[in-house]
Write a structure and sequence with these properties.
heterodimer, A: alpha+beta, Peroxisomal Thiolase, Chain A, domain 1, eight-stranded mixed β-sheet, about 35% helix, globular, B: alpha/beta, eleven-stranded mixed β-sheet, three-stranded mixed β-sheet, 16 strands, about 30% helix, about 20% strand
C-alpha cells in the first residue's frame, strides 16, 4: 500500500500577517485581514513560560494550540510530531557567535532551548502530554515529510496525531545560509477515522522518482517563498481554505506526496 | 477495530501481554496508560554496525566491552580549553568524502562515511536498494548535533563583512537535515527520508519510524541509525548546565560527577522477518514524554516507565523475560538515580543491566543506535558488558546492575534512551527463533 487516508480535525496557522486559519481563508477570498500581534500569543503556555521561551517555541505552540482547540481532542492524549527545516536559527546564531568569542559564557538556558525538540518539550509540559512526541527535519521537504510521518503514525497507531510545522526567520551568517526571511507555522490534527466536525478527508499517495516537480520555480515576489515551511505548505493550505483540491508536496529529495483533499458531504 | 484484531493475532503467537508494571496505573491517573500500544510483528535487523571511541566496527566494540577497556581520553578537541574527558573517534579527520559528495564535507558526515564502511554495512544497504528498489528503502537517521560543528567553524572565520568563508558557504551543511541528506545521496536512496532530532533519544526513535513505514507498506526496508560528533556547542553547552564531569564519567556510582561527551556513528538495516529469518529481531519499541522539565528527568521516572511499558507491550514480553538492559546511564546525578530506581522496581535480579557510557562517553544523538548495537552484540556474543566506571553503586541501584562483564546467554535485550525535553525511547531486541 502506498496510499494513506486520514481525516482533518483541526488547522492552525500563524505568520506576521495572518493570525490563524480563518484569517488565511479570508485573505484567500480577497478580503483584507488585520495583522496579528507581533509575538504569537501561545496561550497554551503558562504565563511565566510565555515570557521566557524563544520565538520558535511561541510560534509552534501557538499553531498547535489553534489546531487542537479546533479538533476538540484533548492535547494530553495526542501523539505529536514537530517538524522544522532549521529549528531555532536565532539560538544557533547566538550560540555559534558566542562560542567563537567566549565559549565559557554560553547561556545554559539557551543551550537547552537549542535542541530541535524544544517546542515538543514545552508543548508536552504545558499540556501534560505523556504520549510520544517527536521532532523531525527534512530540509526543504520538512512540511511534506512531516505530513507523511504524522499520517503514518496516525494510521499505524490508530490514534489522532498533532502535526506542527514551523520555521522562524533567521539572522546573521546562518540566516544568510538558510535564506529564511519570514516566520511561519501551521498545524494539523489528523484522525484515523471521520469524526463530527471533520474538515475533510486527506488521501496521501507516494510518488517516487519525481525530481522535476518538487522544486517549483520561485516568483520572488511573495513572502511565503522565503520560509521553507510556508513555501511547501502553501498549495495544501490553499486547498484547505477552498475545502478541496489536489496538490503535490515534496516528501524527500525525489519523493513526491500527492495530497488529495475532499470535504465530507 | 484494527487494534483488537491485531491483539487477537498476538495471543495466537503464544506471547503474552505483560502485567502492568508497578505503579503505572496510579502515576498516570488513568490517562495515557489507558491507550494500549499496537503490538508489532518483529522485524529483522539484517545488518548493523557502530563506530565510536572504542573503534571502528563491531569487532573493536566487542573486544573493548569484553575486556572492560574504555575509550575515553582527556579533552583535546574543543576550540578553547575545557577540563573534561571525551569519547573521540580516531581517524575522522582523514575520512574525506568522495569528490562527488564534497558539498556535504564536515566532521559529522565524515564520521557517517567512516561508519558506513564498517562491517560491510554499505554493501548491505546497497544490496537492499538493489533488491527492493531505491524508492522502497526508507532512510531515518537521528542526530542532535548534525553538522553544527561546521557552522561553529564558519563563525570562527567570518570575513570582514561578517559572512562565512567561501569554503563553508554551503547551505546544506548548516541545517539539521545535513546527515540524512548526505547519506541519502551517498546510498542513492529515494524512499521516505527523515531526520529525527529529539536530543539523546534521536537514534533510538528511528527504529519506531521505520517499523511504522514497513508495517503500512510504505517501505520494504529501512536504513536507520544516527551520527553525532564532538563540537563546541555540546561541550560548552553541557558544561554551562554543570553536567560535565571533570573525570571520566562514572555511571551509577555514588561519586559520579556528570557526563563525558562522546561521538559515534551507527547504522542498522531493517526488513520484514521473513526476508532474513536468521537475523536478530526488533521486537518492540516504546516512546513517551515526561511533560516535566526541559533538562531534568521526571523525578519518579514516569516517562521512562511509560516508554518501557510501551516497548514490552508491543513486544509481548514480561519483565522477567528480559536478559539484559543497556541503560541510558549518563552519570548525571538525576538520570542515574531515577533510572536505577525504575530498573530496581520493574525487573527481577535475573535481568542484568549496565550503562556502557563509561566506555564510549555519552554520544547524545547517536547514543540510541550505538547502544542498540551493544544490545544486539550482547545477544550475538552472550556478553553482558560491565558498567565501566562504577565501583560503589548508588543506593537506588538494584541487584540487576552488572559491574563487571558477564558471559551468559542473552535472548532478549532492551536499550533505554532518554533525552532533553523529556523525550524517552526504549527498544526491545531478540534472538532469531531457532
Amino acid at each position: 500500500m502506498t496510499t494513506l487516508q486520514v481525516h482533518l480535525q483541526g488547522i492552525g496557522l500563524w505568520s506576521a500577517t495572518l493570525g490563524d486559519f480563518a484569517a488565511f481563508q479570508a485573505q484567500e477570498r480577497g478580503e483584507s485581514v488585520p495583522a496579528p500581534a507581533a509575538r504569537p500569543p501561545a496561550a497554551t503556555l503558562p504565563a511565566n513560560e510565555r515570557r521566557r521561551v524563544p520565538e520558535s517555541v511561541l510560534l509552534a505552540v501557538e499553531v498547535a494550540g489553534q489546531a487542537v482547540a479546533m479538533s476538540g481532542h484533548a492535547a494530553s492524549e495526542m501523539l505529536c510530531v514537530f517538524s522544522s527545516a532549521y529549528g531555532d536559527q536565532l539560538i544557533s546564531d547566538y550560540m555559534c557567535a558566542t562560542l567563537a568569542l567566549a565559549p565559557a559564557e554560553l547561556s545554559p538556558t539557551r543551550f537547552h532551548n537549542s535542541v530541535h525538540n524544544a517546542p515538543a518539550g514545552y508543548w508536552t509540559m504545558a499540556t501534560g502530554c505523556h504520549a510520544a512526541s517527536s521532532a523531525i527535519s527534512a530540509g526543504h521537504a520538512s512540511f511534506g515529510a512531516g505530513l507523511l510521518e504524522a499520517a503514518t503514525l496516525c494510521v499505524a497507531e490508530e490514534r489522532p496525531v498533532l502535526l506542527v510545522c514551523s520555521d522562524i526567520a533567521g539572522s546573521g551568517p546562518l540566516g544568510e545560509m538558510s535564506g529564511t526571511h519570514a516566520s511561519f507555522g501551521c498545524a494539523l490534527v489528523l484522525s484515523p477515522q471521520a469524526e463530527t466536525g471533520s474538515l475533510g478527508r486527506l488521501e496521501l499517495t507516494l510518488m517516487p522518482h519525481a525530481d522535476k516537480s518538487l522544486r517549483p520555480a520561485l516568483t520572488g515576489d511573495t513572502w511565503y517563498e522565503t520560509n521553507p515551511i510556508a513555501a511547501s505548505a502553501w498549495p495544501l493550505m490553499q486547498n484547505l481554505a477552498r475545502g478541496q483540491g489536489k496538490c503535490i508536496l515534496a516528501a524527500a529529495e525525489t519523493l513526491a506526496l500527492c495530497a488529495v483533499l475532499e470535504t465530507p458531504v | 477495530m484494527g487494534a483488537i484484531r491485531q491483539l487477537a493475532n498476538f495471543d495466537k503467537d503464544e506471547r503474552h501481554l505483560p502485567p502492568r508494571l508497578s505503579r503505572l496505573g496510579n502515576v498516570t491517573g488513568g490517562g495515557y496508560a489507558g491507550v494500549m500500544p499496537v503490538p508489532i510483528q518483529p522485524l529483522a535487523v539484517r545488518a548493523y554496525t557502530a563506530t565510536s571511541a572504542l573503534g571502528q566496527g563491531l569487532a573493536s566494540h566487542f573486544a573493548a566491552l569484553s575486556s572492560h577497556r574504555g575509550g575515553l581520553r582527556e579533552n583535546d578537541f574543543s576550540s578553547a580549553p575545557l577540563a573534561c574527558w571525551i569519547g573521540r573517534v580516531a581517524g575522522v579527520e582523514d575520512a574525506s568524502l568522495p569528490a562527488a559528495h564534497a558539498v556535504w564535507e564536515c566532521r559529522n558526515n565524515r564520521l557517517a562515511w567512516l561508519g558506513l564502511h564498517q562491517d560491510q554495512f554499505l554493501d548491505q544497504a546497497l544490496d537492499a536498494r538493489q533488491r527492493y528498489g531505491a524508492a522502497r528503502v526508507a532512510l531515518i537517521l537521528g542526530t542532535s548535533t548534525a553538522s553544527i560543528g561546521a557552522t561553529e567553524e564558519a563563525y570562527r572565520h567570518l570575513d570582514s563583512a561578517g559572512l562565512m568563508p567561501p569554503e563553508l558557504r554551503r547551505p546544506l551543511i548548516h541545517a539539521p537535515h545535513s546527515l540524512a541528506g548526505f547519506v541519502a545521496e551517498a546510498l542513492g536512496l529515494e524512499g521516505p527520508c527523515l531526520t529525527v532530532s529529539t536530543a539523546c533519544s534521536s537514534s533510538a526513535k528511528v527504529f519506531a519510524n521505520a517499523e511504522r513505514l514497513i508495517r503500512l507498506g510504505l517501505a520494504d526496508a529501512a536504513v536507520v541509525g544516527g551520527v553525532d560528533t564532538l563540537c563546541d556547542s555540546v561541550l560548552f553547552g553541557f558544561n554551562a548546565l554543570e553536567l560535565v564531569s571533570p573525570d571520566p564519567c562514572r555511571p551509577f556510582d555514588q561519586t559520579r560527577h556528570g557526563i563525558s561527551i562522546g561521538e559515534a556513528a551507527g547504522f542498522a538495516l531493517l526488513e520484514r522477518a521473513d526476508a532474513a529469518p536468521h537475523a536478530p529481531r526488533l521486537l518492540g519499541y516504546g516512546e513517551s514524554s515526561d511533560a516535566h522539565h526541559m533538562s531534568t528527568p521526571h523525578p519518579e521516572g514516569l516517562g521512562a516507565e511509560l516508554a518501557l511499558h510501551d516497548a514490552l507491550t508491543r513486544a509481548g514480553l514480561r519483565p522477567e523475560q528480559v536478559d539484559y538492559i543497556n541503560l541510558h546511564g549518563t552519570a548525571s546525578l538525576k538520570n542515574d538515580e531515577v533510572e536505577a530506581a525504575l530498573i530496581a522496581r520493574a525487573f527481577p535480579a535475573s535481568t542484568r543491566a549496565s550503562s556502557t557510557k563509561g566506555f564510549t562517553g555519552h554520544t547524545l544523538g547517536a547514543a540510541g543506535i550505538l547502544e542498540a548495537v551493544v544490545a544486539l552484540e550482547a545477544i550475538r556474543h552472550g556478553l553482558v558488558p560491565g558498567n565501566l566506571g562504577c565501583t560503589s553503586p548508588d543506593a537506588a541501584c538494584g541487584p540487576q546492575l552488572a559491574l563487571q562483564s558477564e558471559q551468559r546467554r542473552v535472548d532478549i535485550a532492551l536499550s533505554n534512551s532518554f533525552g532533553f525535553g523529556g523525550n524517552n525511547a526504549c527498544l526491545a531486541f531478540g534472538r532469531a527463533p531457532a
